[in-house]
């Protein structure tokens, strides 16, 4: 397996090419984890930035590109939104409808660069926001989404709660792909749902840059017998709007513009627990590696968490993966909503 | 009952025709047990060999053909798989998905030769392998499968554990057919589940060539009042890949290419305990006999293990034959698995 | 009550009409007990004979027709089956599956002649035989069955043991009907189960032609406050196959073809112990009577065995009427059995 | 077996001796059923009469003597007691306490004549009367009693209801003896309780002289595989006090003094249903027979109602044979009653 | 393991001593299977004969002695009992009560010779006979009994049916001992009940001398991982009473006095399926072997039918081991029965 | 929190005392993880060694002492047991019954040193071995056990499979304690069962000394919000019997006596993921730390895996914690087993 060097992103610089080598066997997938910051409150610019990063990763030969949690829409780091009502509206405005024009644009980008794309977004449905991950294939099609099941701490003030109907794993030409977001990755039952669906390339968009996060990523790779791709933003204070438009709660707000407010730590780990690329705590970067899918079988030979190592007659997980809605109508075969005459 | 002579398989030779006789009554089934070796690590060639053997048995007039345990995929005799990681992958690669293209091909072969086919295979589901028996009817349809419930000794490292949902008995035009694999046949409760389903033609694909195996086969025929057809491979060292690609653990590996590593012993026994054909310990062979199904009623007149001779109010067996899965999904009517976009 | 004359069955003759009279009150049921022999080893011919008898009884105005024990399948009188293996198979072959084509035919006959039909049969389930009584209504529907709980003496070699799940009493438009077979009628707890279910027309198909049988029939009528209809075969030696195909054990086999081997004694008794028709020891016959159901209340006024005359706080019978099977399957809503692909 | 001739009792005459024969094997018991009338409202005279009858039967060699229902105290045939309150008092006065002086006297008589004695009495406890049977052994000991569980029709106005604590069977040197009274013998569960206790000599003191009673006696002998000894009074109108002291309800009271008001019908039946002595409908009599206890085993070989012919896992009787009292006291280890300082 | 030579029993001769050797390790048990005939219809003489055989086996150093089915009471080989009523009584008389004087005598013999004793008897309870095995320890104590659950063919006419309360395994100083009788050994659920109780020394008193019986014995040893000791009678025609007192049904009774009517075949098999002693088809004999209990652990390492090789979550056996009686009494802590005054 | 220095165990040396400090708050528990080797095939000596280590830890002030997997009985590292049958018996002999004398001795030791004790053992039940952890309280009482649910790779040949009935968490005076063994700790559903029972001190006896094991330990502490105490053996080749008595499969057996065959890595981690003591890869050692139970609440404030962070309406785990046995007995309130006369 030829490891792809992790490349620091210079300002606007071009990524160095990587030698794919001659020994890259067929079932190997080149994957890139994007460690970069949202352009806060500017969704079109953020998508432009995403396209540039996708282009770069594609130029590296990457077939799969994973962005951090809330890359589009922004992670409300340090914000309480409690002070400035206006901020809430801006945050709401920066979110996107799914489906919607931003989704269409992302699909087109994926198709243009012929990459599978996993993108963290803030989704807006009616007046509720969700922390969501979108999936696109390399033919430019939107595949579906995962909504975060359980936001953490202050996130619960801003985001709604997903249900069991949006925890997909997609069977694609480059393997079975799914995602859990941030601390969902600490939920053993949520992970087991992923394993039950046969996940091979486990994406973990996150906002947690502590080093103990690495232990969880390694553990998940071992537990699930899968590749783990964790993408986090690398943000400085200046990536957010200046105060008072945006304030960092719990600080004396003496943060310099270059203060690091999210240190990244994006990483790619193999099913045997080997770190293939990252973690990077230096700056924005594309973290890339070649995933030899044959490793999965070797890892599961001894430990197949939903196969020979399970004890389903003792321990069994029920996943209620139907949509749950507060109001449903017997006459409606689809979602509740006003009649469209 | 016209006994069909057991025929040693010469290299590539044609089987001698057998005289079907004029006294073959209607409810008599000609059955053949195949005693032959897997072509290790070469599943297409093994299926080609299976087809040749089926053609030969069909030419003998056989209506039912039973292959040994793990004929497709191979029985990992003497292997620990512990040393050579590569071997694991090869073994995994030689296994087959069920359903899948190899199953389709076997179904087509059964239909082409108009035979019922009971075939031992290594099944691959996700990253777990199972020791499985597949059933096909003479119209070329795949009927279903039995997964070994409890592997023996080192097998437990390589194969998963079946559950109660795959212990079928099929009602066919030639009688009620089912199978237990190797030492499952020593499990009295598993056998009783078969009896409870009314098995008439009890197939026992195996890898046990010791002569005490014969006592168990005779006992089962008497206990169950059924025909017992035990198929084992006859393998020499040269039927496995040469060292170091494949090594026989626990030996000094001074086995000559012609050393017998599995001596067969395939046999057909009637419900009254009479040996109809075999056991053969000489070489690859088709072991054939005519099964007079009328013998079953005569045997059960005095001893019907699940009928007049049972004491259900004292002794009753519960078979939990629902599938057990570590993860289940409320929305899914079938197995858990990834979405196919 | 207008008694219906008992009519000897001449060879193929028509029954004389009976005068129903003008005083037949509404709740009166005309019932016929058939005293006739199985055509041994020829089930289709036996059913043909049954149909002729039913037609005759129907012509007499009979609404309920009760046949003897094992009328279809035959009572293995004098046989040990131990000598001639062939005989066992013939006997097994003459038995019927329930449900099955013979049951369908009997239902159609009941419907054609618009009679309730209680028919003694030999039931075949797998390889065990049961001595069973089938019930049909006058709309041509099969209602259910009773399997003999405890065979007597040599019967235990030939027949299995019913369980508590098949001791029905059916509520019909002509009253509550059930049956116990032969010496089951000597089992006080089995009879009490019938009484507990409210039996009004108690059928006692039998093979016992001794005159002390009459005492039991009278006693049961008194004890249960019900009508008792006991049907027995009238058989001569020639109704069975000739030796050596069928031999009578314990005899010097100097029986002439006309020797009586079962003398009948069929009878109908009222709840007050009055003999309404029979017993007939002369030959094949239809024994008929009008059952005035109003007599039941009169009889129970003084003695209601499960009502005012019971002492349930002192004496209580537990009937375990769930099916008992040696093997049961959690997934199966019905009996265990093979899959039908 | 030497049958003992039934002897009509001439007025005060001596019974003819019976030839015991030389073939009376050891396990044979000579038994006498007494068919005689109470001397109404005169208990001392009734006991005198009983002693004379016992002396006579003893002279015949009888080892067991069974008296009718209510022999002491009298069967209130035809009485409503509704008109004359005084009659009630007389009837109450004629009853006996158990234990009490009359019981002592009866014990002494049994010891004097060295006979087992089964005696129907009216028992008085406080202000309630019971229809009771007393048992005495040939050593002059009172063994215990059976209280009628369920009186019939008008009896319910006069007698109380026994409970499960007084349905004994006594193991004696002449066999296992017990009794049910009159229509209790029509209660299948009560009889089964007797059978469950192993009864061999089944006593049936009664007041039913209809001929259908014989059918029940025969049936019980067959059902229970036991000897049945049914004792009934033979009474003429003159055996009761003349009107108006005692009136026969429901009659025009034109009964002549010699009118038979209870016709007897006492009988002894063997386990195979053979009538050994009686029934006698002619007058007062001692009905005697020799009971060959070896017949029981022969009868039960084919039908053992609580042994091999039972189906206890389907049908089981619970007998609550503890005393039931309306008031009980936690401090009392014995029956409720006033403290005796 | 020092094998003890099987010794033919000369008329009244002394057994040759066996060399116990120095290598007899502590956990080795010397066991003897007795192959000898009942002295028909003479129970005292049969027990005398048993004592002589026990004395001989004890002199050989045997610690455990297993007798055939129905050794006391006799196996009713070839008898229908249908013709000669007298024979029934004799057979009933030859049976023994449990407990009772014969049981006391057997206990004393076991104590005298300091051997564990497993003895096949015909047990009499009331009027039903059971085919029973009694167990005694070397201190002269009666341990308990096993009653045959399901008699075979004609046996069902003669013997009752045991229930789940008498299928014991006894933990003794020489291992865990139990027994199933004759074709009960073909009942997989009954055997599994034995395994569930941890049986180590599995006794199989039988009346089946066919050679296919050996296959079942070997299979059971392998299936259960236990020693199997099968004891059968060796009987000639002259061991039964001469005709017409006793006739062999289904024969022309041209059997010479020396005709073999039961050929024995007693055998001892180790948990690995090795035949340790026998089968002997030559004559009366003591079949002895040393049982190295350490072999059990070695056998169960690979196959522990109720341990690591079970799949209880899929297949589980329920043993209803409470007594079932047709009648039970709330006040009785023991079996129903008559009062003993 | 005062960290307790990890102390290398010199040969037989005394541990250095630790300064408990003055700031040890009340809800702090001093715990020691023992990193030491079994004395192979010598269970008494192993328990002696355990007692010395417990004495030493107790002298350090430890209140809770956790031993590695299979400390008593030994971890069969490198063994196939396939070659030397003798070895199997030795291994079986070194295992212990639960309850049994070794359990009694361990309880006494816990009581003597007033410590909670968590001890890895090889449990023997009948002829199946289980990898088990025993729990004892500081009053010298045995609390219960956990049996490994799923052995890994070659372990499956040697050990049976636990069921859901032995996955306890004990509420003790020092917190809620439970254990999973080795790779069970990689089973997310098994861990979730522990969390569901409220585990606070999560013990992870193991045999895995790879450094990726540390990632799993850290992850579990974070995921479960609990203290994790992982105990592994530190073994050299000489701690096992020399060849040929014990051989290491898959090696050329050129291991020097001092070769490290298990490198330890025992560790203690806090709920916030902080390593409190260890990992130690140097030699035998006592790894000790003070567990401030107050940390648990702080950790769970943000992430309570079975509390506010669960989504039970979407994801729910069913734990079937009833015992599963292949054979059960209706009359038995405890496990099946032989009678003890």
- Record field, number of beta strands of chain A: 16
Structural class of chain A: alpha/beta
Helix content of chain A: 10-25%
Largest interface: A-F, 44 and 44 residues
Strand content of chain A: 25-35%
Count of alpha/pi helices of chain A: 7
Which overall shape of chain A is indicated by the principal axes computed on the Cα atoms?
globular
Query: Which H/E pattern describes the elements of chain A?
Result: EEHEHHEEEHEEHEHEEEEEEHE
How would a crystallographer describe the biggest sheet of chain A? 7 strands, mixed
Q: Report strand order across the widest sheet of chain A.
A: 1-15-2-3-4-5-6
Oligomer: homohexamer
How far is the N terminus from the C terminus of chain A?
59 Å
Radius of gyration of chain A: 20 Å
Low-confidence runs of chain A: 1-6, 9-26
| Integer average pLDDT of chain A | 86
Structure summary:
The first copy, chain A, is α/β, with parallel strands linked by helices and 341 residues long. Chain A has helices at 43-59, 85-94, 101-113, 155-158, 188-196, 212-224, 294-302; strands at 7-8, 28-35, 64-66, 116-125, 128-136, 142-147, 169-172, 175-179, 201-206, 227-232, 234-236, 260-263, 266-269, 275-280, 285-292, 315-319. In chain A, strands 1-15-2-3-4-5-6 form a 7-stranded mixed β-sheet. A 6-stranded mixed β-sheet of chain A has the order 7-8-9-10-13-14, covered by helices on one side. Chain A has a two-stranded antiparallel sheet with strand order 11-12.
Could you explain how this protein is built, in words?
The structure is a homohexamer of 341-residue chains. With 341 residues, chain A is of the alpha/beta class. Chain A contains 7 helices and 16 strands. Chain A has helices at residues 43-59, 85-94, 101-113, 155-158, 188-196, 212-224, 294-302; strands at residues 7-8, 28-35, 64-66, 116-125, 128-136, 142-147, 169-172, 175-179, 201-206, 227-232, 234-236, 260-263, 266-269, 275-280, 285-292, 315-319. A 7-stranded mixed beta sheet of chain A has the order 1-15-2-3-4-5-6. In chain A, strands 7-8-9-10-13-14 form a 6-stranded mixed beta sheet, with helices on one face. The longest helix of chain A has 17 residues, at 43-59. Chain A is globular, with a radius of gyration of 20 Å. The N and C termini of chain A lie far apart (59 Å). Chains in contact: A-B, A-F, B-C, B-E, B-F, C-D, C-E, D-E, E-F. Chain C binds chain E through residues 80, 82-83, 153-154, 156-157, 189, 249-250, 326, and chain E through 80, 82-83, 153-154, 156-157, 189, 249-250, 326.
